[in-house]
Amino acid sequence: MKKVLLVEDSGVFREVEITLLKKIEKISIVISVNLKEAITQLNTNEFDLIICDYQLPDGTGLDYLKMVRENGRKTTKGVEVPFLMVTGNNDMDIVKDCIKQGVTDYLVKPLQAVLFLQKCCKQLELPMPKL
């Protein structure tokens, strides 16, 4: 079973992402709604994929990405944990900052279901579900 951490403060977007993720077989989903909860999860669990909103109530996804990379977090296979940034802001400076900090991939809201699932399945090395 692969473990996914979803960090999303917006209830509407969180529900959309959860609905899509539940289509992927053999994963469990852990949810955090802010940076503080996400940090706690990072300190107590191992994840195979982190999906994080950029704008959080108590910080940014970039802040969290920096922590994940500085802590050298690995998946259960011993590789750097993939980090998928999701944002409503398509600002190229943000994208560049995320790339510099080691983001694995980047998606802009509103999410396209197929693209979201493709990116998640690729990082999890799991088959694409039927929609």
Descriptive notes:
By secondary structure, this protein is an alpha/beta fold. The chain has a single domain (2-124), classed as Response regulator (Rossmann fold), CATH 3.40.50.2300. It has helices at 11-21, 35-44, 61-70, 92-100, 113-124; strands spanning 2-7, 27-32, 49-53, 55-56, 59-60, 83-87, 105-108.
**CATH fold-type name:** Rossmann fold
Helix content: 25-40%
Biggest sheet features: 5 strands, parallel
How are strands sequenced across the largest beta sheet? 2-1-3-6-7
What is the string of helix and strand elements?
EHEHEEEHEHEH
- CATH-defined architecture: 3-Layer(aba) Sandwich
**CATH class type:** Alpha Beta
The coarse overall form would be globular
> How many strands in all?
7
Counted up, domains total 1
How many H/I helices?
5
The overall pLDDT, averaged over residues, is 94
CATH superfamily: Response regulator
* Class by alpha and beta content: alpha/beta
Global Rg: 13 Å
What keywords describe this structure?
5 helices, Rossmann fold, alpha/beta, 40% helix, two-stranded antiparallel ribbon, 131 residues, five-stranded parallel beta sheet
